[in-house]
């Protein structure tokens, strides 16, 4: 266990060194590449305006998303009604998807209650 901690500490030290060495250049390059998205007047009013624009844009996209949801539901209904014609590949994908959803639910419950996956509290 102690050797594992030493390995983890050495890897963390290497990562910290790399971040300290290349972090500022990465930050500057990232800002330079995305300068078209940066507001030149970073005021509170401008931030509130952008927030409202985002909110109402998302609100305006709801009817399209609602229609897409019902198309997906209709597709699933058709697959359920024609379940005798399903291929083994489609059944496998559905089973994996359901298993993944169930696993995320269980992991979410464990983490939400303050537990850990391994059972050991850190």
TrEMBL record:
Keywords: ATP synthesis, CF(0), Hydrogen ion transport, Ion transport, Membrane, Mitochondrion, Transport. InterPro entries: ATP_synth_F0_gsu_mt (IPR006808). It is found in: Mitochondrion membrane. Belongs to the ATPase g subunit family. This is ATP synthase subunit g, mitochondrial.
């Amino acid at each position: 266990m102690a050797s594992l901690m030493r390995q983890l500490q050495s890897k963390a030290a290497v990562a910290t060194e790399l971040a300290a060495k290349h972090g500022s250049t990465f930050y500057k390059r990232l800002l330079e590449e995305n300068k078209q998205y940066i507001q030149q007047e970073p005021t509170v009013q401008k931030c509130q305006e952008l927030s409202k624009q985002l909110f109402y844009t998302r609100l305006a996209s709801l009817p399209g998303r609602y229609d897409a949801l019902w198309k997906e539901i209709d597709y699933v209904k058709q697959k359920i009604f024609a379940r005798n014609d399903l291929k083994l590949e489609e059944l496998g994908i559905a089973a994996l998807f359901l298993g993944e959803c169930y696993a995320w639910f269980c992991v979410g419950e464990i983490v939400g209650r303050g537990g850990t996956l391994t059972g050991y509290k850190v």
